[in-house]
Design goal:
Largest sheet: 6 strands, parallel
Order of helices and strands: EHHEEHHEHHHHEHEHEHEHEEHHHH
Protein name: Glutamyl-tRNA reductase
CATH superfamily of the largest domain: Glutamyl-tRNA reductase, N-terminal domain
Family: Belongs to the glutamyl-tRNA reductase family.
Catalytic activity: (S)-4-amino-5-oxopentanoate + tRNA(Glu) + NADP(+) = L-glutamyl-tRNA(Glu) + NADPH + H(+)
Number of domains: 3
GO molecular function: glutamyl-tRNA reductase activity; NADP binding
Shape: elongated
CATH class of the largest domain: Alpha Beta
Number of strands: 10
Distance between the termini: 19 Å
Number of helices: 16
Low-confidence stretches: 425-438
Function: Catalyzes the NADPH-dependent reduction of glutamyl-tRNA(Glu) to glutamate 1-semialdehyde (GSA).
CATH topology of the largest domain: Beta Polymerase, domain 2
Mean pLDDT: 87
CATH architecture of the largest domain: 2-Layer Sandwich
């Protein structure tokens, strides 16, 4: 088995493509099961957020695994495989490990250094464990990925400013309004993870008064109570839209929540307002209907707009410090991986030795039928001890050597020297560039 990561993010796909690729929580178990049912895919974890959809997989072959995963994604999204390929990036072997560590560290995020991705990775890992789509390789990768992310955030200043997608969106909103957002009224639509993050960020930056609405009023009430905001019934959304300066929409709806008619009515109620209505659409699929974005008096900032703005990049020194952590941890993981790969060879060598001892014992017993059971047991124990002592130092040393760069050659030498028949998966850390994004 080797590691393969395939995905699309704000770097490679626009919101329209991400909307089709996004995987609702209800569909995730079925998709994971479909992935591991493919011929070349043995393990799978799927990460689906507002600006990325990624599959981390353990595969028995690069091209076969790539084809299997692309076919599943194409079927899920309805995007033809030929078109989907233009939106995907592909990482294999060492590159897949490095990518996962960079993602958890916030280096691959739209707002570099944001910590929200850690929770999203943790949730994705737990979802995969619940349907048993992870094995030894992905268990180790995901556990180390989460650890590396925590280390990057705790040991460097990568997230010192508490940046997030919401923070970057508010910066864009401030530019459009041309004023400080402190004291500006706002409405958050959605009380899920992104909605809660939005409320926390708005409160911290002094935006208010703040209102929250959600289809489930209980969740809106709890979130409003926690932050001193006001919960508004979802049925009053249209009226409330006309009473605020900023709207942050972050629902999990598969249909637009802010339709043209709804926004037209809200803008009519704001007739004569000094500033346009700013809608920060952080949902994927988008909450703002495509035909509403050009309404006079309305400014819509969505994920595409944030990607273009590239706000709040951390200092180069902080980024470099995280890159050093990632590089060191990638080496550590590859050392573990090489050590794990030699284990079947060492086990096969010990089995061969045990087989030789057993065969020689049978020959001895046939030649010396006069041996008592106690004598046979003594001879057998002695032979096994001699073999174990002879193999101990070489097998310990070969495990150490295998953990070093180029260590896979030692396993190959053992198999050649002792003519060991060890079933091996394909292992490679470099592949030709695929579709320009390998």
């Amino acid at each position: 088995m080797n590691l393969l990561s395939i995905g699309a993010s704000y770097r490679t796909a626009d919101v329209a493509a991400l909307e089709r690729l996004v995987i609702p929580d209800s569909a995730l178990p079925g998709l994971l099961q479909k992935l591991v049912a493919q011929p070349y895919v043995g393990e799978a974890v799927v990460v689906s957020t507002c600006n990325r959809v990624e599959v981390y997989a353990a595969v028995t072959g690069f091209h076969g695994g790539l084809g299997d995963i692309c076919n599943v994604l194409a079927e899920h999204s309805g995007i033809p495989a030929s078109e989907l390929a233009s939106h995907l990036y592909v990482h294999y072997g060492e590159a897949a490990v490095r990518h996962s560590f960079r993602v958890s560290s916030g280096l691959d995020s739209m707002v570099v250094g944001e910590a929200q991705i850690l929770g999203q990775l943790r949730d994705s890992y737990h979802a995969a464990t619940e349907v048993d789509s992870v094995g030894r390789l992905l268990h180790e990768l995901m556990q180390q990925t989460l650890r590396v992310g925590k280390r990057a955030h705790s040991e460097t200043g990568i997230d010192r400013a508490g940046q997030s997608v919401v923070t970057a969106a508010l910066d864009v909103a401030a530019d459009h309004l041309g004023v400080d957002l402190t004291g500006r009224s706002a409405l958050v639509i959605g009380a899920g993870a992104m909605g809660a993050l939005s409320v926390a960020t708005l409160t911290r930056t002094g935006v208010g008064p703040l209102r929250i609405t959600n289809r489930s009023m209980d969740r809106a009430d709890r979130l409003a109570e926690a932050y001193g905001a006001v919960a508004v019934p979802f049925e009053e959304l249209e009226r409330t839209l006309g009473e605020v300066d900023i709207v942050v929409s972050a629902t999990a709806s598969i249909e637009p929540v802010l339709t043209r008619d709804r926004l037209t009515a809200a803008l009519a109620a704001r007739d004569g307002a000094e500033h346009p209505l700013i809608v920060l659409d952080l949902a994927v699929p988008r909450d703002v209907a495509p035909d509403a974005a050009d309404l006079p008096g309305l400014v819509v900032v969505d994920i595409d707009g944030l990607a273009a703005s590239r706000r709040a990049l951390p200092a180069a020194a902080e980024t470099a410090a995280v890159e050093q952590i990632v590089a060191s941890e990638v080496d550590n993981f590859l050392g573990w991986l090489r050590g794990a790969e030699i284990a079947p060879t060492v086990a096969a060598l010990r089995t061969r030795a045990e087989d030789v001892v057993s065969a020689e014992m049978r020959k001895l017993i046939s030649r010396r039928p006069d041996f008592t059971e106690e004598q046979r047991a003594d001879v057998s124990r002695t032979l096994h001890r001699v073999v174990q002592q002879l193999l101990h130092s070489p097998t310990v040393r070969v495990r150490q050597l295998a953990a070093e760069p180029g260590g896979d050659q030692y396993a190959a030498l053992l198999r050649e020297l002792f003519d060991l028949d060890v079933p091996l998966a394909t292992h490679a850390n470099a592949v030709p560039e695929i579709g320009g994004k390998a």
